[in-house]
Automatic annotation (TrEMBL):
Pfam families: IU_nuc_hydro (PF01156). This is uridine nucleosidase. Involved in pyrimidine breakdown. It catalyses: uridine + H2O = D-ribose + uracil. It comes from the Eukaryota. Keywords: Cytoplasm, Glycosidase, Hydrolase. The keyword Isomerase does not apply. The gene is LOC125542781. Its EC number is 3.2.2.3. It is found in: Cytoplasm. One of its GO terms (molecular function) is inosine nucleosidase activity. One of its GO terms (cellular component) is cytosol. Its main location: cytoplasm.
Length: 324
């Protein structure tokens, strides 16, 4: 008798974004997941463009049944000067392909309100996959202090654990985008799984893989092979590599198959100013310090420490090359 497995409900909080687009498509192609909504945030592009791109990607996939809730246009501290990574993803966020505007519209509800609503509708059952700065999640915690206990799990692409960042030596981009929000989320008490660039910098899509996408009959694969050009150019300029890091799709796969990674547990705090703004500092909680520290008494989170990179790439490719 075939086992009936229940699909995992996921909300993807995203700033599309070339690798966000790939993660969203992998999610839509994963039978283990039910995507109940996308929420948008600034990061790779400004929030309004992230919303437009989220709607466009769902229309491309023929999944206009999935709602989009627009997120914050400012940081949790209401800063309007944002770091936008258009030099990584193109000024349109999707490799400068001049896609037509989407026909659909976002919900009237804010991203934070949507997150709180879904957590209340399905307590303990919704996983948020956070692929951008953590402002919307911090706003959800502020809106409903019981949100951390009602949300099932929060899987965060964010941080650089014992390695350099990718914005500067200290900070990874999603945490740097709103470090105050990140510190709120990391210490909110939810079931959190963090995947940093120490993990995602091991997962590389080669140009051979890109060729396979290009030659595929799958519309998802062909779409991605087109927008990936800009991202490959950036990686060649920035890292001198022929290939691209799969930050967002790798994080997405932690929801599909957590056994692709191993994890450790401890307390993460985020530096919110100074030259190390956005730094994530992990306390493994093995030492009892003589002083009271800023990590004392804070809830622990899980942080990924190893990844089966070939298996991750293989699964991503398999999902994208699948027949419709
Ligand atoms: Ca992203």
């Amino acid at each position: 008798m075939a086992a009936v497995t229940k699909k995992k409900k996921v909300i993807i909080d995203t700033d599309p974004g070339i690798d966000d687009a790939m993660a969203i498509f992998v999610a839509l192609r994963s039978p283990e997941l039910e995507v109940v909504g996308l929420t948008t945030i600034f990061g790779n592009v400004y929030t309004a463009l992230a919303t437009r791109n989220a709607l466009h990607l769902l229309e491309t996939a023929g999944r206009t049944d999935i709602p989009v809730a627009e997120g914050s246009h400012v940081t949790i501290k209401k800063a309007t000067k944002l770091r936008i990574a258009s030099f990584v993803h193109g000024s349109d966020g999707l490799g400068n392909q001049n896609f037509p505007p989407p026909a659909g519209k976002a919900l009237d509800q804010s991203a934070a309100a949507f997150l709180v609503e879904q957590a209340n509708l399905y307590p303990g059952q919704v996983t948020v996959i956070a692929l951008g700065p953590l402002t919307n999640l911090a706003l959800a915690v502020e809106l409903d202090p019981s949100f951390p206990k009602k949300i099932g799990q929060i899987i965060i692409l964010g941080g650089a654990y014992s390695v350099n960042g990718n914005v500067n030596p200290a900070a990874e981009a999603n945490i740097f985008g709103d470090p105050d929000a990140a510190d709120i989320v990391f210490t909110c008490g939810a079931d959190i799984l963090a995947i940093g660039i120490n993990i995602t910098h091991q997962v590389l899509l080669s140009d051979v893989d890109r060729k396979k996408l290009e030659q595929s009959d799958s519309k998802y694969a062909r779409y991605l092979s087109n927008i990936l050009g800009y991202y490959y150019d950036y990686h060649m300029d920035a890292y001198s590599i022929t290939g691209v890091y799969l930050h967002d799709p790798t994080t997405l796969l932690a929801a599909v198959d957590p056994s692709l990674m191993t994890y450790t547990e401890g307390v993460v705090r985020v530096q919110t100013d100074g030259i190390t703004k956005g730094l994530t500092v992990f306390d493994n909680t093995k030492k009892t310090y003589g002083e009271i520290t800023a990590w004392c008494g804070k809830p622990t989170v899980k942080v990924a420490v190893t990844v089966d990179a070939p298996a991750v790439v293989e699964l991503i490719m398999q999902r994208l090359l699948m027949d419709d």
